[in-house]
Amino acid sequence: MTFVLGIAGSPRRGGNTELLLDAALEGAREAGAEVRKVVLDDLSYSGCTSCEGCQDGQRCVLDDDLQQVYGLIERADAIVLASPMYFEGLSSQAKALIDRGQLFWRRKYTLGLEGKKRRGAVIAVGARRNADFASALRPAKIWLLTLDADMTSLTFGGFEEKGSILDDADALEEARSLGRGLVERNIH
Predict the structure, then answer these.
(1) Taking the mean position of all CA atoms in its chain, how far away is CA 111?
(2) What angle do CA 39, 150, 180 make, to 5 degrees?
(3) Residues of the chain with pLDDT under 70
């Protein structure tokens, strides 16, 4: 069974970003996947401290709540990272997770170890209608490439008020379709 990991990078629970992530996970579940959602704001962790403790590629030596997320990432056949945009970048929660991906970077680029091929997606939501998502999507894309995942993305601009994404009749269906597609096109 395909395992899809959803990572909620918003500090605002039940907001636009999480509504879209939940719809994507619902779509994956409808397509027969096992799904799991991790809410980064519920975890206690820091960004990378550049301690070099992961040089052997075995584990990040920072003993915090991201340890449980690493195992889920390694198990995942598909990963969906959802984040609101802050100053045209990812949330600090999402960016800290990406920076802590140094362990996976070491494995792939320093030690030459190939990881499991998987699917990847990013859902980004911005308050400004004319938001430029490129600066948010770039680090997410590099992180997903490091995890041996391809990347597709959904971006939504003009949604600041909590729940305002529900005003877009197609948004939740687009997210559900994304989730279904991650399962139906999954790489094994």
Answers:
(1) 24
(2) 65
(3) 186-188
User: Do residues 146 and 105 lie in contact, with contact meaning Cβ atoms separated by under 8 Å?
Assistant: yes
Which among 181, 150, 156 is positioned nearest to 171, based on CA atoms?
156
DSSP H/E element including 66: helix 66-75
Backbone phi, then psi, for 123, in 5-degree steps?
-115, 120
Query: CA separation (Å) from 82 to 11, 108, 112, 154?
Result: 11, 24, 29, 9
The structure's pTM equals 0.95
**Domains of the chain in sequence order:** 3-184 (3.40.50.360)
What is the C-alpha to C-alpha distance for residues 177 and 94, in angstroms, rounded to an integer? 23
Chain centroid to CA 133: 15
Q: How far apart are CA 185 and CA 23, in angstroms?
A: 18
Q: Which residues, at least 6 apart from 77, have a Cβ–Cβ distance to it below 8 Å?
A: 2, 3, 4, 33, 116, 118, 119, 186, 187, 188
The reported pLDDT for the residue numbered 188 is: 44
Q: What's the Cα-to-Cα distance from 24 to each of 3, 56, 69, 134, 184, rounded to whole Å?
A: 13, 35, 19, 21, 13
Helices (H) and strands (E) in the chain, counts: 6, 6
Q: Are 165 and 126 spatial neighbours (Cβ–Cβ below 8 Å)?
A: no
Closest residue by Cα to residue 57 from 96, 102, 99: 102
